[in-house]
Amino acid sequence: MINIPKGTKDVLPQDAYKWHYLEDTAREVARLYNIREIRTPVFEHTELFLRGVGDTTDIVNKEMYTFKDKGDRSITLKPEGTAGAARSFIENGMAAGLLPVKMYYIIPAFRYERPQAGRLREFHQFGIEVYGAAGADADAEVISCAALFLDRLGIKGVKLNINSIGCKSCRADYNAALKNYLRPRLGEMCATCRERFEKNPLRILDCKEEGCKAVTRGAPRILDYLCGDCAAHFGKVKELLTESGLEYTVDPDIVRGLDYYTKTVFEFVSDNIGAQGTVCGGGRYDGLIEELGGNPTPAVGFAVGLERLLLLMENSGVPFPADEGPEVFIAGMDERSRAAAFGLVGRLRKSGVSAECDHMGKSVKAQFKYADKIGAKYVIALGSNELECGECNIKCMADGSTRAVKLCDVCECFKS
Ligand code: ATP
Ligand code: MG
């Protein structure tokens, strides 16, 4: 037998309604925010992620699904959604159109990681991107969009943590201070962090190794190094969050895994799903479009991990709307009425009513049982009597009541 690859999951038909609920809610929230969908390829040139995600990140260093195609091009399955959206923004000249450009995506993403609860090799993200708006209101809008998504799903108790990691200029001062602090302690840190020390010391704050965490606990804080502009921007974000009724905590340790972030960074975190508690991460990345060859364009966005969200909803007993069965099941008592049932089911479906009949040669009794099991709301039994007089009974499965209807009127009856 051939098994599913490690770190991937099937969504079985009986569970698909949960995914539809997540996706429908995401699309509805995007609609409320006037955000249109962007669809980009599942694979891109590897170069896009090297530049767009950053070569000091775990994603680029360890996690990418990269391969040579038959034309000897280096191709990578997308590990996240922002780089592809940014590439498309530039390639399609969106900067010359109406700004801001607001886009969302629901995508599979691929990262070669050690699989555990809430950490897969193929997972799914709902994300949004806002390009062209530099003000703090865009940051607050993006954060409030993520909050509304969680709220609409009925998720409670997820904490919003925010931070600012400044712009290029304040980051330079901070990096110098951070390096001065870390230099004498490098011996206590992991090999990856020692490497990051020169390239991108800020990323050391994101390391999950205990030794490194112990060292960084006493490190200088970026918030103390923000330039006037970045400090004002962060102040405004906080003001607008409060204005929107959103509670938040300033967490100076959030730096986000990706290199392209500037100013605001944020996470929505739950303590109900174990170690992988971050269900949503996002922030501002004003440097990304330019890094990818476009004109400098401010940008802000988030991505929610849908598997983690599902896990959180299941663990905390958040209700899903019930999976619906067909509207009506048509049972046939003999060869001829089974054929008539088949025809009627076809006509019902054509008129937009979900309908089912037997395909397993079941007895009439077994057909009724089956109709009940699949959650059919109504059942009609056809036999020689019904066919002869052209009339049948529609049985309501919820209360057992019946009503007589002409066979030729059945479709009309169910059309709402
Ligand atoms: P983590 O620190 O947990 O590795 P990350 O910083 O790598 O997360 P992002 O790149 O910000 O994550 O991705 C956004 C969201 O996507 C995360 O908050 C998480 O919900 C989800 N996510 C990331 N990696 C995985 C994965 N391997 N499996 C499932 N969900 C994931
Ligand atoms: Mg990660």
Present the secondary structure layout.
Layout: H1 16-32, E1 36-37, E2 43-45, H2 46-52, H3 58-63, E3 66-68, E4 74-77, H4 82-91, E5 101-110, E6 122-131, H5 136-152, E7 159-164, H6 168-182, H7 191-199, H8 210-216, H9 228-243, E8 249-250, E9 262-269, E10 278-284, H10 288-291, E11 299-305, H11 306-315, E12 328-332, H12 335-350, E13 355-357, H13 364-373, E14 378-382, H14 384-389, E15 391-396, E16 402-406, H15 410-414
Parallel strand pairs: 1-5, 7-8, 12-13, 12-14
Antiparallel strand pairs: 2-4, 3-4, 5-6, 6-11, 7-9, 9-10, 10-11, 14-15, 15-16
Helix pairs in contact: 1-5, 5-9
Short synopsis of the structure:
The protein has 416 residues and is an alpha+beta fold.
What does this structure look like?
This protein has 416 residues and is of the alpha+beta class. The chain is built from 15 helices and 16 strands. It has an eight-stranded mixed sheet, sandwiched between helices. A five-stranded mixed sheet has the order 13-12-14-15-16. The model has no long low-confidence stretch (mean pLDDT 94). The site of magnesium ion has 2 residues, from loops.
